[in-house]
Structure prediction request, 227 residues.
Amino acid sequence: MTRTVAAGASALLLLVTLACGQQTWEAAMQAGESALQRGQYEQAEKIFSAAVPKAEEFGLHDRRVAVTLAHLAQAYSAQGKFVEAEPVYLEALKIYQDVHGETHLDVAAMLNNLGVLHRKHGQYADAQRLLTRALSIKEKLLGPDHPEVALALSNLAAMYLAQGDGEQAGALFARALAVREKHLGPDHPDVAKNLDDYASALRKVGRVAEAEGLERRAGAIRGKPKS
Prediction:
């Protein structure tokens, strides 16, 4: 039996045992996350869907319900099922807010995911509102130069870039780049990605020479052998 077939058989067995109430929530989450990592998004969707009732056994407003819903929404989003993903993210967000209050990293994570979802739909006003709020929470809780803040900056920058606002996007990508270089070092793959994103923003405002310099840096990072 090949590894792929074995993984599929294991996932099918998990679904059966979940349906019979014999599998734990923890085991279901582990299996679903494994399916996500393998890119088996439809399988992950089925596992997380079956895991939601297991999580609800802890209480409808238990944090584990929100965790399960967030993973289910992630599986939907990975398949391009944005209409299905949004209400699930919203439900997870409501539970996190009930459990933690308005200012918590779990809340920021759901705001971020919803913001990215709206950006992909071209709903930029909603995306800006959600991503700005997520950034504000992370800055308040983690400080201005945390890697999680860099991620929030990049997501907000990508929203501005999608609208064609290279100036706003460039300023945010530059901030994110400084944080990543500080924490990850100058040769990290995330730094290379940030350099390319920043270059795209600079090209939007006609700063082509600067953009080309950033792109060369990114290319040099990717060309270095892994240690």
